[in-house]
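Batch job 17 of 40 flagged for manual review because the log was empty.
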Amino acid sequence: MTQSKPSLLREFFRYASLNMLGMVGISCYILADTFFVAQGLGQTGLTALNLAIPCFNLIHGCGLMLGMGGAIRYSILKGQAPRQQTDRLFTALLALAAVLALIFLTAGIFFSRPLTRLTGADQEVFEMTRTYLQVLLLFSPAFLTNDLMLCFVRNDGAPQLATLAMVAGSFSNIVLDMVFIFGLGWGIFGAVFATGLAPLFSLAILSRHLLSRRRGFSLCAGRPRLRLALGCLGLGFPSLVTEFSSGTVIIAFNYLFLRLEGNVGVAAYGVVTNLSLVVTALFTGLAQGAQPLISRAQGQNRPDQARRLLRYGLFSVLGLSLFLYAITALAAGPIAAVFNSEGDPLLQEIAVQGLRLYFLGIGFAGWNILFSIFFAATEQALPAHLISLSRGLFLILPMAFLMAWLGGAQGVWLTYPLTELLTLAMAAVLSRKKGQATPTPSA
């Protein structure tokens, strides 16, 4: 029976809203740290936190590359291939996650100091930055496994359980932050330790799915077939690029703000970028929530249904971005003040300016994320890669240094919206060439 448009719309909103809630939960790992570190450790703690955050982006990006790539392949294979094939796929991806975790663990145990020097941390914040970075690396097995499980459980018809797990992880992080930072006085270590424990709570909830009779995947005996896992990396690569680019941009912007405004500039940028991570998580959650439905349509050879889902996403991003920017622009002062526990007037001024300028690009970013995941979900890896690499590396890095030279700190803030706008223009061209949906909701 052909599925009616209203029922598909309801299904879209169900998957998208649940996953948006869950992705905000994951992003709140760092936002909670930002708030509690600001209250407990002030400007110095904020600076150290922001210098170490790219490490979290890299770990999370690797987890999403495995999870999203594997889940897309799983959604397409489900119902078409024998159950044994999906079990082998999941097992191979879990083995590859273990290999990546071993690399991160080695870096955390033996190379935390050299990596901290690469962040640009000065003597004032070096030890705090090193502590945060090292503990994140040591908890990498939990982060990677959690990302993989979340994607598979969501694509296995259990978006509610995935959302519950993500929210539980975020809530545990908030509670543990309060206990470790203020109750026990553990400072920056307490903040990152709470963040590292959070995915363990999430995994405890997700493990219920592995015990369910309705599950469509499980571990299988025998030697893992890593070739199966490697074949999924291309489909998950845009997710890695999105997270990796966030970390790369943070490194570049930290460098520029250190030169332009010193540590207080990095602290102000930390406020803006960590809030933007939550907003980006909303759009990523929307796109990832639609992905199982788009991949299902692809597997059923229903391109019309996939295009309709894309249009739903485009309209949703438009409305959400206008609402969020209005709030941010009007309440920039109070928002910045929440993270400015010492009442530093320069930090307040830079952060307010940043919120109003940087957040001009959130809608463009949302559309770019949606297009990238749409192309990946329909097994069109090349355009997905081009969009992700353009907004994450090829355009934004040279643009940042050019805009800093032309307009100082104000120019750096405007780099983000300009880069996302240029990338959206390219995504529109790619969409039309591929015969997909129109690039903007007005079309």
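Reviewer: the log was empty due to a logging misconfiguration, but the result itself is present. The chain has one domain: 7-433. Unflagging and moving on to job 18.
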